[in-house]
Amino acid sequence: MHIMTVCLGNICRSPAAEAVLVRRLAEAGLDHVRVSSAGTADYHVGERPHPMSQAEGERRGYRFPTRAAQLEPADLEGADLVVVMDAANEQDVLALARRPEDARKVVRLGAFAPDAAEGVRDVPDPWGLPEAAYGRMYDQIEEAVEALVTAIVDGTLGQILDRRRAVS
């Protein structure tokens, strides 16, 4: 299984979600799941994560070995699940999907949050905001990733995706 996390520039939210997923999947013993990240824009291709995103993540024990990349249509074909951070990212990714089956792989991370029944919350972009915004971003990502990994472990991932599609 390959999960791809996506945000706008691939330096704040999606590398954070990638790092959280990598660690949480390893803790769950899901070594067969590969995680990568990309951005819908080419603003930061080749760059390391944003310093505040990386610093907050490292405080929480995460590692950041990757560099920013731009999402390409072929990336959608190679992924089993594409987890986006907000509605704008979702629209941008869906516009790249060349096949209906690729569009069906796209879901917002907030669909896995405990309060998702009340509507999917976007993960706000902390770029340009104070340090505290990065902490809130990680809190939100960690909460949703925990539920995503649980859904993989207990086999309910498909049900969650179907439920999200029904309300979209």
From TrEMBL:
Keyword set includes Cell wall biogenesis/degradation: no
Family the entry assigns: Belongs to the low molecular weight phosphotyrosine protein phosphatase family.
GO MF terms, alphabetically ordered: protein tyrosine phosphatase activity
Key words of the record: Hydrolase, Protein phosphatase
Gene3D superfamilies in the record: 3.40.50.2300
Superkingdom of the source species: Bacteria
Organism: Ornithinimicrobium kibberense
E.C. code: 3.1.3.48
A Pfam family hit: LMWPc
UniProt protein name: protein-tyrosine-phosphatase
Top-rank EC class of the record's enzyme: hydrolase
Every Phosphotyrosine protein phosphatase I domain range: 1-151
UniProt keyword annotation of Hydrolase present: yes
